[in-house]
Amino acid sequence: MGKSKLLFITHEMSPFLELSKISEITRQLPQAMQEKGYEIRILMPRFGNINERRNRLHEVIRLSGMNIIINDNDNPLIIKVASIPAARMQVYFLDNEEYFQRKYVFGDKDGKFYADNDERMIFFCKGALETVKKLGWAPDVIHCHGWMSALVPAYLKTTYKDDPTFKNSKVIYSIYDNDFDGQLNPEFAHKAVMADMTEKHTEAYLPGTNSSLYAGAIQYSDGIVLGGENIDDEVLNNVKNSHKSVLEFNSTSDFENYYNFYDEITNEELVHVA
Fold it and tell me: Cis peptide before 207, with omega less than 30 degrees from 0?
């Protein structure tokens, strides 16, 4: 049996984009797990303020060229890659001119949340899973970080549940302190529906606030990591009521606990109560 495969999906990672604590975790944790024997892949958006030249990004022609459909519109997906020499890790960047080539990340120069952040999120989550399929690399564990990856667990448990790439994958979701106020476009849950889904599958994410995106991700994940110290009480109650396996915040400073948590999630017999 080969190495276990661990996929990280995040909207930020040091040194490419540093917005919050997430960027430190997603830089250090993959390297620590690689040193424990995991095979690692990392996916993130190629936001416009990520310097391609300095970070030596280059396009991966064999992975580029797909279209991601959102609201009946085709959106071209370009894949770029960069290496972290110190860690021998590769990071794949999902790019699209319309969604990501902007000077700012989630809001304009005045801090106003972009009106199409819902579509940017859908594009990223769909594009990430399609990219992994095209890589032909079947992850044992998929670890999602932050609100922008919140749809990935739902897609894995519906559209992709029988896909050979993902049918044996376990998904873990890390929750952090709230990243944004306000909410996504009211049409968000409708636009997010993929094949073999209905709006019933995305209603847990409504009304598209930071807390409700976490609620949807909690519902579809196999395990939850409490990655922040000041997580909303509403979110913590959702975690508690989900009866999912949880890695508590006070355990996250020691990466050995993540290793054991991944092992626990991949080995536990999930009992489905009808």
Answer: yes
